[in-house]
Fold this protein.
Amino acid sequence: MDLPVDARLVNRRGQWLQSLTRRRRIVFFGLTLLTATAATTMMWDILAANGLNNLDRVGLVLFFVLFLWLSSSFWTAVAGFVVRWRGSDTVQIAERWRAAAPLRGRTAVIMPIYNEDTSRVAAGLEVVWSSIGRLPEQAAFDLFILSDTRKHDIGAAEETAWRDLVVRHNARGRIFYRRRPENTARKAGNIADFVNNWGGAYDYAIVLDADSIMSGETLLELAQLMDANPRAGIIQALPLPAGRDTLFARLIQFAARLSSPMLSSGLAYWQLGESNYWGHNAILRLKAFAAHCGLPRLPGSAPLGGEILSHDFVEAAFMRRAGYEVWLVPIERGSWEEIPSNVIDYAARDRRWAQGNIQHLGLLPARGLYWLNRIHLVGGVLSYLASPLWLLMLALSSTVVILQAMHGHQYFLPGQHGLFPNWPHYRDGEIAALLSLTAVALFGPKILAAILAIRDPALRRGYGGASRVLWSLLIEQVFSVLLAPAMMLFHTTFVITTLAGKPVSWHAQERGDRGIGFVEALRRHAWHVLIGLTWGALIVRFAPHYIGWLLPVLIGMVLSVPLTMLTSRIAPADWLRRHRLLLTPEETDPPPELAALQSSLAHPQAAQPRTAVQEAAAARELLRDLEHRVPPLAPLVMKAQPLHQRGSARGTGETHRRWLTPWRKS
């Protein structure tokens, strides 16, 4: 329900909460900056021992930026570890609320789809709706299938699947199907079309991706959280990856299942009511969303201008600009998604995300955005810009080493006439300290996550036991190191092509377990192999003592073709599963929803042949169904928001000068 939100609600939050928020962010950002500064100072001391040149100075700047990014992840993990070890964070929205009052708001569960595998979409919707049907509050939920499909055969299959779903559940007037004639503005436009036509009939909308699965209990909890917190504009559930069987997918599923709950608790710890929206498995307050989250067109043309591709971060920023809170609920139950099953499809998805995130640079000057939302936007850009920065730093370090090897150390500097040479200096202590600090920042988060898993008896059993957790972590880490160089080169290409003005093509995402053959892998990785061989040959020729430092990077590049082929296969993943490695709790003890999904996909319902009489009856039934395909119009007007909004946020009693906390009263 949408209730008035004003300064009185801010006062009731209490000054202690404002102070707590400030302290948390000062500590988090202070530790992040201090760690990066300490590491950069050690690097400066190591390089300056024998004199700094311009290449060294550029490398120091790159090192600081990359270590700042790394240390922010480390301290987020530490915060999440402490929260998980203690068992709760009483400031979080889910901790401050417990279900008591009956559900008041009506919720639309919406699934935007685009040229998807209809059988997988239908199986997922069957699971979600069946889970909703077990709730006493099931009448408060309706389901919308929002199709942007361009292919007529897929569209016809979608409509058939919708009718079958309605008939099986006797859900006429509860489950709806709409197919847009034009997919204007892609997914964001699809959702906006729903809001403009039927948003007025509902208080909230829960957004699902085509591969999302959510339990009825989690959907209900999100709606109840919205009822109980009228200042919440978006509440994001934690989607855990599950359901894929290739080695690549199982590596990611294990790593994400192990670390994501801890990391999300860390994010929620310092972000509080200024968290992010990830575009799915989240609930929206529809009136606020319609009033404040319409996306503008960026100046210029694609890829940097035009329609905003990555809409979720922007919608969260606009919702916060309007005075509503955006929360992350780090609970690892009842919310799942699927991931691409191989390196190539994973990179293809990242290509779209890279362009969408880089577009956010154009939003940074927008007036009224909270400073933390600007940091979110910058963080999204850095998640892809880090790859070319990393590549550039490696190239600079290789260049410096090769030049030093070619010219040797200068024992007598130009203009120096003393008797004593300029001996080379080595900072062994600083080198050891920097390596240790880097190792802790890189591997510490996963070690902390493993400690939490081993400490909890139920989780420990879910991962196959303590020893299996450690062996699985080692396997995952080895493959992460080997696959990272190819992903670095992919991301570097994506950034360069986006900045060069080449927009991404919009295709349906590959969601099944797809194996990659030699020809496809070679076509996509040929230049990775060439770079690795050339780079390695130069180092071996001019600076062979440096090859050990670059070996993990070069091996990943040179072996990128067989690595992509191997990790796209199901057989090695099955071998590991039989040995209880890379297990997740959802595999060891599948939740009812995931078990039902796997059963439905393994045993699809076959269409039964029909007689002419049955065909005529089906045609009459179809005409009646079409009358109920969409509900009566109940529009909410969703207008594009200006980039440079001025004035105060409607309904909040707050102006846009918000700097320290989500609850600061202007």
